[in-house]
Amino acid sequence: MSPAPRAASCAANVYIVSQFRHDEFADENARAVLLQAFARPLPLSRGADAVDLPPGRGRASSWNLLWAQDLTTHWDEPLTPDSTVWAAGAAV
Asked: Residue 48 and residue 34: Cα distance in Å, rounded?
């Protein structure tokens, strides 16, 4: 992939996660369980849905943690619910 499409993917991904930057999606309890769930790389939807959080809360909080850079991904690839995500600083 040339640099231009990678930059476009990165910009689109930042836009996506920016939609979850608000405090309503930030939850310390969710943060703790999601960071544990993503201690190893997993598809976002799989890790978010596997934790004991109310329906939809795991995914919304995961997007928020991507915005906060507590979780990370391959930012130069299109970001979808099936994208691989892991805790920032975790061995990949």
From this structure: 7
84-87 vs 42-43, strand pairing mode: antiparallel
Q: Is residue 92 part of a domain?
A: no
Q: Is residue 67 part of a domain?
A: yes
What's the N-to-C CA distance of the chain in angstroms?
22
* 40 in a structural domain: yes
- Provide the domain count of the chain: 1
pTM score: 0.90
Task: Give residue 11's domain range.
Answer: 3-85
pLDDT in tens, 28-85: 999 999 999 999 999 999 999 999 999 889 999 999 999 999 999 999 999 999 999 9
